[in-house]
Amino acid sequence: MTEHIRPYDVAADALFLDFDGTLVDLAPQPEEIVVPPELITLLQRIQQESDGALAIVSGRPLDQLDFFLAPLRLPAAGVHGAERRTADGRILQQPVPDVHHLRERLLPLVESHPGLQLELKRGALALHYRHAAHLEQRCVETMMDALRHEPGFTLLHGKMVVEAKPHINKGDAVAAFLHEAPFRGRRPVFIGDDVTDEAGFAIAQGEVFGGFGIKIGAGPSQALQRLADPAAVLDLLRQSVEVRSTPG
Question: Which family does the similarity line name (predicted)?
């Protein structure tokens, strides 16, 4: 599935990376993902050589990203942009709806099916059914019904998960970064694997910023480029810093 990829220029571009399914392989449970040892070194090097124009844009909360990417504390957007750490370390939080009433509406389904997992985030709630794929339609219908009673959320149907999140998306987070140093004035490159990343592709590839997106894996996407899996992303990052290091 790997296709010709337009070169990512560490010195001139701004790089935005999704996490699960992009930098790391998906796991049966969100806490079971494995971070390739080389990834931390590559991200640290890209951060240095790009003058800091590197950010993680994920559905995970910032504290989880920091845990898995320790000791790095990169600019990042968590919970699809509901919380964001700027390059100078400021934490910006968007107003989000209360998820506790929504959680109460979903608990009966989760408690009656051990294969389901409910993940509570700040202003968002994810219902994972990776261990109970046969319940996909039931999960979607239950979430849709719950959201009819709980305004303020957007429904997202991702890879083995259905999520209620605030009316904020990854594209908003990318656009905010691109108006700030050190991202301002650089061509954005957004890499992601899921439906939640389409908003990031749209911003990166729009007329305002003139960049491009790279879709990871199969499935329809507006991204201009495509790679097969997280291993291919690791190769791309490795090649990018190797090109930078090669004498002219």
Answer: Belongs to the trehalose phosphatase family.
The answer on 105 and 77 residing in a single domain is no
Helix (H) or strand (E) holding 91: strand 91-93
Residue 165: closest CA among 193, 195, 190, 187: 195
Q: Which residues are catalytic?
A: 18
Q: Is the CB of residue 39 less than 8 Å from the CB of residue 23? A: yes
Give the CA distances from residue 179 to residues 18, 29, 145, 185, 243, in Å, rounded to whole numbers and listed in that order.
Answer: 19, 35, 38, 8, 28
pTM over 0.70: yes
Burial of 147 (0-12, 13-18, 19+ CB in 10 A): middle
Q: Where are the alpha helices (DSSP H) in the chain?
A: 37-49, 62-68, 100-112, 136-148, 170-178, 198-205, 230-245
Q: SS3 for 112? A: helix
More confident: 36 or 243: 36
Domain hosting residue 191, numbered range: 13-94+169-243
Instruction: Say whether both 186 and 90 belong to one domain.
Output: yes
Q: What is the domain-level CATH number for residue 183?
A: 3.40.50.1000
Q: Which of 124, 141, 166 is the last residue of a domain?
A: 166
- For residue 241, the one-letter residue type is V
Q: Which residues pair with 187 in a beta bridge?
A: 13
Q: In the chain, how many domains are there? A: 2
Tell me the mean pLDDT in the region 186-194: 97
- Give the integer Cα–Cα distance in Å for 132 and 147: 22
Read off the tokens for 178.
């691109």
